[in-house]
Design goal:
- The structure is a single chain.
- The chain is α+β, with helices and mostly antiparallel strands and about 90 residues long.
- About 30% of the residues lie in helices and about 35% in strands.
- A 6-stranded mixed sheet has the order 1-2-3-4-5-6, with helices on both faces.
- It is globular.
- The termini are close together.
Length: about 90
């Protein structure tokens, strides 16, 4: 799935929650987006429950920490699931 398609599927914006400095959780009608600085990190849609990840999901320990806080999974766990080809984790090519 393309990034633009995924963003459209989120639906109507509801609220923004600052998780920490430069770490933001954006809540939409149909899902949640996690952003670090200006980089998209991950999106989870309510419709399919899949965690869609962008290239910077494993950028740093801080990113991993807040990815875990927002979605309950660390970047190292995500990497393992992607290697296992778990259908609940998808890396989005930008």
């Amino acid at each position: 799935m393309k990034k633009e398609t995924l963003l459209k599927k989120l639906g109507t914006f509801k609220k923004a929650e600052q998780v920490q400095n430069n770490q933001t959780k954006l809540v939409f009608e149909k899902g949640v987006l996690f952003q670090s600085y200006d980089s998209l990190i991950a999106i989870r849609l309510k419709t399919d429950g899949v965690l869609y990840l962008f290239k910077h999901y494993n950028y740093s320990k801080t990113t991993s920490k807040y990815l875990n806080e927002v979605f309950g999974v660390t970047s190292s766990e995500v990497t393992k699931e992607l290697e296992r080809k778990n259908d609940n984790y998808k890396l989005i090519k930008e």
